[in-house]
Request: fold
Amino acid sequence: MLHNDHKLPDLAPPISTTGLVGWARQNLFDTWLNSILTVVVGYFLITTLGPMLNWAFLDADFFGDSKDSCTSDGACWVFVTVRINQFIYGFYPESELWRINIMFAAFAVLIAALVIERTPHRGWIALFTLTLFPIISFYLLYGDAFGLEKVETHKWGGLMLTLVLAVVGIVAALPIGILLALGRRSEMAVARSFCTIFIEVWRGVPLISVLFMASVMFPLFVPEEMNLDKLLRALIGIVMFQSAYMAEVIRGGLQAIPKGQYEAAEAMGLSYWKSMGLIILPQALKIVIPGIVNTFIALFKDTSLVLIIGLFDILATMQAAITDPAWPRVSTEGYVFVAFVFWIFCFSMSRYSQSLERKLSTGHR
Reply:
């Protein structure tokens, strides 16, 4: 008897388990509940996404110089293109816009250099960004020195003002929040009590109240000759408010560090500040990266509340523009544009934080 030792070739897997069909069966139609949800969501997308795309792109008008250029039934993006300078620069003098453009370009280059890992001397670039660049930016924007025309802060507005409020708030709130978190966990009763009261008071009031107090009430409690700029008062209020929230985020990271890490630092003979700076804080900050970025995103969006004290960020500038009788019924386009700008910045921060988490391996699986 002859025996056939040749194996039959492996059969291909069923079509229903591979490719797009297999992925759909595994992820969208694996249970009866998921199947119903898939059908409902699909119906919603079909009935809303198509008309939305037609309104925003296919039937929209993009170029022109007045409302008369919008002749279709779609979005009138002409409103945005005509007012784009106002949305970006606010009421800044047109002849001095080059100063803002230089600041934007320098800031973009510095951020790119800090994000790209292959950039040489990143430490020096970070030091320059945190120390000298804010001073240079102030003189570029405000002027009144080095032959630059003085531009009062009430003329600042648009996206430029939004970025000034957000960047200053983010840069200042993080170190203050770290100090408050350390102070709240301190063994010194005075420091612990002061930080606890500070955090609870600032977290217990809404940001609108803080801005109102900084703009209206603060001048009543200081000498008349002490006249702080309205923008400066708003920045101080935002920084103090956000630093309280940042302190609680960082305190959560400090509590997540095992006690053995503190004991190991003491066993090595490190002082309090060296043990915190070299051992404890690097681990704690890695753990709370999502919370820190979430606070930054909330701060970036909360800058729109400065409208209550008469500062015109990008949202307030758009709201002022849609009241122009020459541009009737363009509020939807204006709000969509501002929402897209906020989404771009917030999404970028979110994506960078996720890449930073993967790089530092902060996930616990």
Summary: DSSP finds 16 helices and one strand in the chain.
